[in-house]
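Weekly puzzle thread! Below is a chain. First person to post its structure in token form gets bragging rights.
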Amino acid sequence: MLHGVETTGHEWDGIKELNKPLPKWWVWTFYATIVWAIGYWIVYPAWPTLSGYTRGIWGYSQRAVVAKEGETARAAQASFRTKIEAAPLADIRNIGIIAHVDAGKTTTTERILYYTGRKHTIVDVHDTKDLKSSTTTDYLEQEQKRGITIQSAAVSTFWRKKKINVIDTPGHVDFTIEVNRSLRVLDGAVVVFDGVAGVEPQSETNWRLADNYGVPRICYVNKMDRSGASFTRCVNMIKKRLGARPLPVQLPIGSEDNFKGMIDLVLMKALVWDSDDRDAKPAELDITPDIADKLGITVPTDKQLLAKIPDYRKELVDTCLEMDDAAMEAYLLEEKDPSAETLVACLRKGTVTGAFTPVLCGSSYKNKGVTQVLDAVVDYLPAPTDVAAIKTVDADGNPIGERLCSDDEPFAALAFKVINDAYGALTFVRVYSGVLTKGMSVTNSTRGKREKIGRMVEMFAKEANAIEEARAGDIIALVSLAETDTGDTLCDTDKQVVLERMRFPDPVISVSVQPKAKGDLEKFSAALGKMVRADPSLRLETDRETGQTILRGMGELHLDVTLDRMRTEFNVEGVMGEPQVAYREAFTKPIEEHYVHKKQTGGAGQFADVWIKFEPLERGKGFEFVD
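Winning reply:
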């Protein structure tokens, strides 16, 4: 009997079966499911996302591995920050990578970061168009789709205990503004040339910009593995089309598919790679008269170049020793061959003063020659203390003094770039003198405004690493400055100066722009204003006669990318069209008109006899009324 209900034997057996305790495996499965649900929906989303691992549920063991990797990455980052903070001025190199589009700037930058240990993988530009991956410096969606650099990106690394700040710049003519403002704050540049095309139009433009700002350069003839590559033709083009004095410090061993390495004319060694693997190390071989045969070089032009090694070596020694009278005297009178250290010192002096430009060669895509470019950056390009002090100017832009690059001088920095980022508006500045600390109040001497320094970051492409102070020679970004635009000077309030500004080209093309959805007008206008503030080569105006919003820029691609970036960065879409033109007509000869006005509406009527004469004036003089 159960609660007054009569039961049969079979029913009683069923009830007893229900009252039996559950199996232990079922209980543990139930509890494990509850714990799994809590862990997945509450705890796991808060778990730090670490590079290289998905957010799948793989259990405690993998999370422990990820945590260990994260600790290693953080330790490496802390070690890198310690190096940066400890780097003296003489150990800093602020350089830019400049070239015509598709010469291999970004590919070279990727290898630089890999070989210096800042990256552990290499992403090639042609592998990014599916938007699943990106190179370090070409992280914008628009850059990945088109396979070109659109905005300059800054990264920092170390090589041979020297801190190298690298800015990867665009090569397309529509984005010359990025090269312009980057060269303004850099101490040196690596000019990359396509070994097949040689000097191209944008190569000439970038070279002139570097001349305008007095930036020392080294040349790197890239893509020596491509069909049709010619080192000597490229060197001759540098001489004739750029008016420069190129000085080869390397000669290629072979070309096209048989490109094996290069001859180092300073050390007089042959550097030969036996594979294209990114971790392959070059073998150092002695230079002998039959080196071409030993290395299997069969193309006549390549063999002829290697046969001229003594001539190129003599040219290198003669040109270098122009920088050192004592070494030149020893070389001429005592017939004493200069040491490699003497040649390096002379090459550095000649590069910094602009007496000549060292030329190197390689193939970044095939991982040959990039570490030699890094050595040349350290050996030949200047530190901030090696270049002339930056000029200070008056309100009209006339030079009135200079500011030395030193931590002991009053603070002065130049804002050279503004971008809209997930962190807010980022203002990139080059610190020329003094020390800038977090929380410090400075003056924007260009506009007469005060700025409070809040968050300070050092950028690694799109990643921002918080810092507490910046010293002379550093390139950093300041978050959410309200009054500072490109070209403005930030300085000590008690020791105010205005640094020499940048010069920007005028726009060459105009289009009308409007939001795709009428309800987005306010959002569209705000986004457009931010884009114009970030890019000084853009102009925004409203046509009073047609009422259209007119956006002016450096080319159709420039304007198209601007609208596309508004879509990805501000979530507002716009459409581009042709500007309307308000046509006008003008008199070409005098005209007389006679009109009689009569009107009777009751009472006194109206009567007038009107004579009027229209005559053309000179164009641009407007209207003139004579009674």
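Puzzle host: Confirmed. Bonus trivia for everyone else. Residues 7 and 48 are 60 Å apart (CA to CA).
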